[in-house]
Amino acid sequence: MYDFEQPRLKKDLEPEELLGVILDYAAKIANERNLDNVLMLMADMGKQIVVSDRCTVWLLDTQKGELWSKVAHGISELRIPLEAGLAGHCVRTGEPIFIDDAYTNLVFRDVLASGALHTDQLTGYRTKALLVIPFRNNEGQIMGCYQAVNKMTESEVFSERDLRNLSLAASYSGKSIESALLAQEIEETQREIIFTMGEIGESRSKETGNHVKRVAEYSYLLALGLGIPQAEADILKMASPMHDIGKVAIPDSVLEKPGKLTDEEFDIMKTHTEIGYNLLKNSNRRILKTAAIVAEQHHEKWNGKGYPRGLKGEEIHIHGRITAIADVFDALASDRVYKKAWELDRILNLFKEERGEHFDPAVVDVFFEQLPNILKIRDRFSDPL
């Protein structure tokens, strides 16, 4: 049972205050493409506009016949059947719902019993006033709904004014969420294509798709550990699977050779970095521009003895330095056509020796700090037997 403090009463927003809230959130939402962040801003805007204790933004999942929310103030992610609760009723009928007191309302008594009141029993929270309003996309199709809970003014009930104001927010929400969903779909499509291309490169050398997944996860973890901003770490995670895309142009006789390569064969193998870079360098997309850097520089060494350009120290882009250690760790920790996987202690000793030689010392330090998490990733994405 949760212990809820008695909330302090507030006042409805004056027209100038309401306009200020709407303009403030409209500016924030217009600059946001991440769906989760858009939903949080929407919930915050709705909560302030109608002066409610809580506000949930529900989205319709037509494939599963469910409503879901990652943004429910005070609650974690939720999924409910479309047939359940007031949110489901609102989305199915397209009509807003007003309830002054959930425990005395007769019209929606059965619906409430299966939703809000059941949750109250679990949490100790007291649901009283409710306002639920659907929102639509540009084609007029219902995408989900706002659900405001408990009016925080002296009246303790939602008004027609609240309905109008939240309807305004709902109208803007549908269009903004639709844009965020489209951006998310485009990003997921890009990510899928990049992973597929990365897997193609690795499959030429008989690697599994899990190699690129592990390298992506390692790179992401190391980037965050180095203090790289979340957005940039996300880009690196999406781009790093392309590090070996240039292998598509390397002959099978070199890629599949079980023994040590001759000097001539190794020179051929090294060209995969330049090939990958040339494949990607002309793109204006940030993900592919990052992938071009990673493809070219992941075999450069901190001491300047790497390839293809012999870059040294911070001449090597941080994305290349990160992917270098992620790729080497996974290569050594995995069976390859030319060797068996190394024991962990042997890999760690090598990394200590190569700190400041092959690898950026700062990246090596973060690698050791994150080692428990790195090993979890290795196990989660282990190759099939």
Describe this structure in words.
With 385 residues, the protein is an alpha+beta fold. The protein contains 15 helices and 6 strands. Helix content is 54%, strand content 10%. Strands 3-2-1-6-5-4 form a 6-stranded antiparallel β-sheet, with helices on both faces. Strand 5 and strand 6 (142-151) form a beta hairpin. It is elongated.
- What is the helix/strand order? HHEEEHEHHEEHHHHHHHHHH
Name the structural class: alpha+beta
How far the N terminus sits from the C terminus, by CA atoms, comes to 47 Å
Report mean pLDDT, rounded to a whole number: 83
What's the architecture of the largest domain, going by CATH?
A: Orthogonal Bundle
Bin the strand percentage: 5-15%
Name the CATH class of the largest domain: Mainly Alpha
User: Could you describe the largest sheet, including whether it forms a barrel?
Assistant: 6 strands, antiparallel
Number of domains: 2
Q: What is the helix tally?
A: 15
Stretches where pLDDT is under 50 for at least 5 consecutive residues are: 1-6
Radius of gyration: 27 Å
CATH superfamily of the largest domain: Hypothetical protein af1432
**Strand neighbour order, sheet with most strands:** 3-2-1-6-5-4
CATH fold-level topology of the largest domain: Hypothetical protein af1432
Protein name: HD domain-containing phosphohydrolase
Organism: Paenibacillus hodogayensis
Topology diagram in text:
Layout: H1 15-30, H2 35-50, E1 52-61, E2 66-69, E3 78-81, H3 85-93, E4 97-99, H4 109-114, H5 116-123, E5 130-136, E6 142-151, H6 160-204, H7 209-225, H8 230-239, H9 252-255, H10 263-280, H11 286-297, H12 318-333, H13 344-354, H14 361-369, H15 371-380
Antiparallel strand pairs: 1-2, 1-6, 2-3, 4-5, 5-6
Protein name: HD domain-containing phosphohydrolase
Domain HD-GYP: 186-383
Pfam families: GAF, HD_5
